[in-house]
Amino acid sequence: MSVLESAHDLNTREIQGMDAAHFLHPFTDFKSLAVRGSRVITRGQGIYVWDSEGAQILDAMSGLWCVNVGYGRKELADAAHAQMMTLPFYNSFFETTNVPAVKLAARLSSLAPSVDGRSFEHVFYSSSGSESNDSNVRMVRRYWDLLGKPKRKIIIGRLNGYHGSTVAGASLGGMSAMHAQGDLPIPDIAHIDQPYFLEKGLAGESIEEFGIRAAGWLEEKILSLGAERVAAFIAEPVQGAGGVIVPPYTYWPEIQRIVDKYGILLISDEVICAFGRLGHWFAYEKFGYKPDLVTFAKGVTSGYIPLGGVMVGSRVAQVLIERGGEFAHGYTYSGHPVACAVALANIDIIEKEGLLQHVRGDVGAYFSRRFGELSDHPLVGSIQTCGFMGAILLVRNKRSAERFDPGIEAGMQCRGHCFRNGLIMRAVGDRMIVAPPLVMTTGDIDEMMQLIRKALDFTLKDLTKRGLV
Ligand code: PXG
Prior knowledge:
Elements: H1 3-6, H2 12-22, H3 30-36, E1 41-45, E2 48-51, E3 56-59, H4 62-65, H5 74-86, H6 99-111, E4 122-126, H7 129-146, E5 154-158, H8 167-172, H9 176-179, E6 189-192, H10 197-200, H11 207-225, E7 230-235, H12 251-262, E8 265-269, H13 284-287, E9 293-296, E10 308-312, H14 314-323, H15 337-352, H16 355-360, H17 362-372, E11 380-386, E12 389-394, H18 410-420, E13 423-424, E14 426-428, E15 431-434, H19 442-465
Parallel strand pairs: 3-13, 5-6, 5-7, 7-8, 8-9
Antiparallel strand pairs: 1-2, 2-3, 4-10, 9-10, 11-12, 12-15, 14-15
Bound molecules: 3-[O-phosphonopyridoxyl]--amino-benzoic acid.
């Protein structure tokens, strides 16, 4: 029997050994992981996953912000199976198309609301969020070239924003550790600061005032670069990987005013926020702004199979179509029939089970209320929620809001306690993050809250023992 055939019969240690010997994981210190050994996830059902030792773990991160409809959905497996048996692959280059890709494009267009006459009738497909943002860079620059303004090249992103890990995605994002590797960002990408009130707000400044000031950094940057050189601004509606940074409600309208004033394109990167995470198909609807391009991935298939893309608004689509000639860009898997068939089945589930209403209505409100109750915990400095996303900031001193020394890695300590006690939460510095499957019931939320509280209690005990609180 080959190694592959016998893989399921291997014990945890053997799998960890093979893993360390052959698999270079993303965003990982390979050497230290090889010493510790990976956790091996073998199975998922509903809101839970199980590891190779049989431990049941409540997945409050939906895989990686994506398993919106939960694990073990037969409808999605059936859709993939049926499509694989009918047509597992065909490309969409050379004047060909396939039925699921066409149906999905039409369906997505019908789900993306028009704002002020700007509609989303077109989709460009990729297989991930990173690739989609590469497509955005290509499309934005092509758009301005076609309009005879080739100098409009610069795309402005935000510090601590995340737009993927390819060369273009990492450049658009504002993660300093990523920029430090490989001479990033590439030319003609600029950044402004993030609208993070807790860190950037001034003494005596209200959060609403801060939102206007933070949006104003975009105008300052445009003016310092020269508006005639600025092509687009890209941002997440709510920053996900950066730690669930929810902007003040005054932020987006002011950003809209500024991009309109200078005529620059607005890209809404909704890889995390679309497909129900914030209670809408697309999150720009929640905040009421008018993007020209919308990046999606993850939740479009609930992560069951890779698929991403860009919703191309009428302003850009018209120019690309009417004046464009050949757009020299695309991927082998653009419009992959199996991925598109799974996306259609996933959208069916979200619709049939009323998951948008679930998040926007009573259950979302219950999540927000129960999560907010954690603010009584001695380690919790502040709480933010938005839709089915939440963040807890761990602090050393609740009253003075004093933060932990980063060397203590309080967030990582807490994450360790979560894992050991059957809960997956993400630590972004000292911000503890959840983005649970949208199918969670109020009972599931109660269970999650119990587990979070337990992990916080263990973390507090640990840090107290070490004299750190
Ligand atoms: N844009 C946004 C807003 C994202 O959140 C990407 C683009 C890139 O998508 P792909 O499919 O290329 O990974 C993302 C991905 C984390 C984490 O640790 C978040 C993401 C990916 C990996 C880790 O929170 N978001």
